[in-house]
Write a structure and sequence with these properties.
alpha+beta, 5 strands, globular
C-alpha cells in the first residue's frame, strides 16, 4: 500500500494533482481543503495517501494531514459512500 508520497508538485487541476517522483508523475485526487494547502507548482510537497483499488481502476487519494485521511477512511466504511463522495464531504 502507498501511505505517503514526497515529491515535486507538477500540476494542479480541479480535483486532481500530479506529483513528480523522480520522473514518475503520480495523479492523486485531492479535496478542496488539501488543494488550498498545496504549495505552488514546482515546489516540494508531502501528502498522506489512500490507494483505492477497483476491478478496473486504481485511484490514489492525497491528504494534507492524517486527520483528513482518517475521516476519509471512516466515511468509506459507510454503505453507499464511495471515494469521490467521501472526498467531497
Amino acid at each position: 500500500m502507498i501511505r505517503q508520497i514526497k515529491g515535486i508538485l507538477a500540476e494542479v487541476e480541479q480535483d486532481q494533482i500530479i506529483v513528480d517522483l523522480h520522473g514518475l508523475g503520480l495523479g492523486l485526487f485531492v479535496s478542496a481543503a488539501t488543494r488550498r494547502r498545496l504549495p505552488p507548482p514546482g515546489e516540494p510537497v508531502s501528502l498522506y495517501t489512500h490507494l483505492y483499488v477497483r476491478e478496473d481502476e486504481w485511484q490514489l487519494y492525497g491528504f494534507a494531514d492524517r486527520e483528513e485521511e482518517r475521516l476519509f477512511q471512516t466515511l468509506l466504511k459507510i454503505n453507499g459512500v464511495g471515494p469521490r463522495l467521501a472526498l467531497s464531504i
